[in-house]
Amino acid sequence: MSTRNQVLKKSIAFLLVLIMTLTMMPLTTFADSSDEEVDSTGEDQQNYSTESQIKDITEKIAAVYAEKGADWWGTSGTWWDATGMSAYKKAFSDTAKDISDDSKQAFINKTISDITSLGTTVSTNANKLANAVNGMSAWGYDPTALWTVNKTRINAVEQLNNIKLEDATKSWYSTIAPYVLLSLNQGEYSSDTLKNQYVDYLLGELENVDWSWGVDTPAMILQGLAPYYNREDVKPEIDKMLVTLSEKQTENGSYGSANSDASVIVALAQLGINPHTDSRFIKDGKSLMDGLLTYKMPSDDGFGYSDGVYNEYATQQSFLALIAASEVMKNGLPYNIYDFSKESKSAAYANGAGGKEADPADPISEKEMKVNFTLKADSGVWIPRTTVTLKSDATVYHAFTKALDEKDFSYVITNKNYVSSITNASGKSLVEFDKGKHSGWLYKVNDELPDIALTKYKLHDGDNVVWYYTNDWTKDPDAVEAAGGKAAIKEFEELTKENTVGRIEVEATIDKDGKGSADVSAKDISDAIAAAEKDDQNSGIQPKKEIKIVINADSKINEIKTKLPEAAVTELGKKVDVLTVQTPIANIRLDKQNLDYLLKSADGDVIFTVKKVELEKKAELTEENKSNLQEKIKGGFIFDFNLVTGDKKVSQFADNLQISVPYAAAESENSNGIVAYYIKDKGSLEIMKNCVYDLQTKMLSFSTDHFSSYAVGYRNISFNDISKHWAKDQIVFLAARDVVKGINDAGFAPDDKITRAEFVQMLANLAGADLSAYGDPKFKDVKAGEWFAGSAAWAEEKGLVTGSLENGGGLSFDPNDSITRQDMSVILSRYMSKIENKKLEEVNKEVEFRDKEEIGKYAASAVIELQKAGVINGKTVDIFAPKESATRAECSKMISVLMQNYL
């Protein structure tokens, strides 16, 4: 191949990658680039890759991004830029170079606007949605709760999950799929089935990659596959790819451009490979980092592509590479710069469509149209229905401004896209939030609430536009429907309605033995309650009032006593809904019912004591007990909890309280296998089935109705047939808590049908039922002594199952029959009401299943209840398949959802 053809082919390859990955980047990004020349041959470019020098370049680029305003972030900023700045802030602990709130808002507006109206090209839609998920996650926003200016919720994750891979791959997808896969890992957003499909697709693309086009595409594929390196089918392919990448590296350490070098460096960092010292990526003494740095600007605040001219895209990619390389060089561990799965996230709200909003252009069509316009205030009509004549290419914006201008009204349109205030001709104004937290202006077109901004909505002849002020859009039926139903509104309210918290901080006094004490004064508690009540009044809603007592002490402390005066306990019991005591050893959270109980039990001052005791020093345990426990308890510590009021010890509570203890999970540990143990008097262990580990806070939380001794354990669950199964995490979660077992020592058989006997046994395990008391089953087909006899008798006595009447009389349980999906729904519904005495919450809107007529009358209400509670889904979007047999995996998923959300 001639040199000219090679150059042409590389140029085309770069353009393909650039086009497919920068769908969200306007052309102005490159039009604004400077023509500053780079001397890429000078000696000063060589050997510039020390950590301190890399840090200097990174900080200068970060300063450039920090200085860019809302105009840039709302038009040219991409998810890669958001990722880079977020990763930089964490990696370098820089508090000075901040992106302004206005710039973040502009980026939110742009991102939401980009995915509001998707096109017909599936691959482009997937790219935009993945960009939204990754970009929003980088800045701590929840991609499942993106709200348009007209109060319509967009769930970017759900839309991305609904895209079929086979449809997306009909167009170029090789450089899009890696970032879709990365986006699906920004939270518990997708099933393993879909992720595995993407892994398989990328493996296929890697196998067929044309290396003569350069390393950009294979490097991007590697970025998507890197998190799956330990999979047996992925590791050998990545290892082969690393060999090829090493072979393709040129003698100056580079692959021919800053973009190529940066893409490879980011991928290597994900694998924990140091791009500056790994011998595979050093050629003639020049490392890959040396290669990248040959393209830096002399001012150290940007990069060129390969021709000595500053390039925005090259700078963007190199910024990511510098951060990733710095982390690997510093820590020697794998570093995924795209991973924000452990970050807390909150909903994002658009108040425009981008950065600097230009005034909408005047309509230019020669044709005219007539639309009807009405303006309604919170009470009464300000502009009765009137006809407005417009050009045929006019938008809602033009109808609104013309109608109000003709009536001599004034108004404020935020970012040219959201009406925040209207003042009528008499001078009366209605402004957003005037009538409460959820009040404001909305509009409808033909009785429907659009999901796009007023400057984007094109009108047609005869359309009816109604502008109206709502005192609470969450109570507006049309707004509720646009937001995704009552379940979405409930979730919105949960996101925005937080407890009003009165916070108290107390410094503990610590003695030489590491024992601490903290006295909370009655005045401190009264002041905290007053602060919470003030916030309550200002909020306009009715949140719970919480008092949080934070005890500050050295993390090495082994005991802490927190003392509350009796008078303060009385005030807490009467005025507060939640009390949290936060210490370095553990956190305790009491709800209203337990506070009432504490008030009734109080016989003087109340003292909470939390101890962290080394197992070997636990005097109450025998040496045999300690030896047995040593194998199961992680860290070798036991947590003791005590409460004393006056001279009286209080161990039992009115209801479950929540305890959280710190635990740093090892990288090799599946968080679903981390459990809490209750240590009984004789040293035996009981698993707290409702325990859940939070990867973000690194806290293990569980509920209990009594104070005692507890410990953290890890159960390594390793069935050989679930490693790639979509229900792996749910199965591990249940197996670690002894709710489910495998069919043998090695396998779980997740896709096997589950029998009625197996199902009720799982529920008995979940309830912790003592089955020794249930040895006389009433079913004719269940014999005493059979492995399921006790659980069948228990389920019958508790009203979970009734059996079927046989022709000859008597009841049959049909233990070996596969349980149907509708029967499983009925039994689970009964379990929650009869055993747990709990009501399921409505978190989803009801699905109108097309096969609802096939659901038995006895099961209809249970199916609806569990579907709305998020416990069970249809086999497809609108097919429930009530008489199909349930699988062991499906059952595990349902019980896991119940445990983690309701128990």
From TrEMBL:
Name of one Pfam family that matches: DUF4430
Domain of life: Bacteria
Segments forming domain SLH: 714-777, 778-842, 846-903
Keywords: Repeat, Signal
Signal sequence interval, chain numbering: 1-31
InterPro entries: SLH_dom (IPR001119), Terpenoid_cyclase/PrenylTrfase (IPR008930), Transcobalamin-like_C (IPR027954)
Name the record gives this protein: DUF4430 domain-containing protein
Organism: Aminipila luticellarii
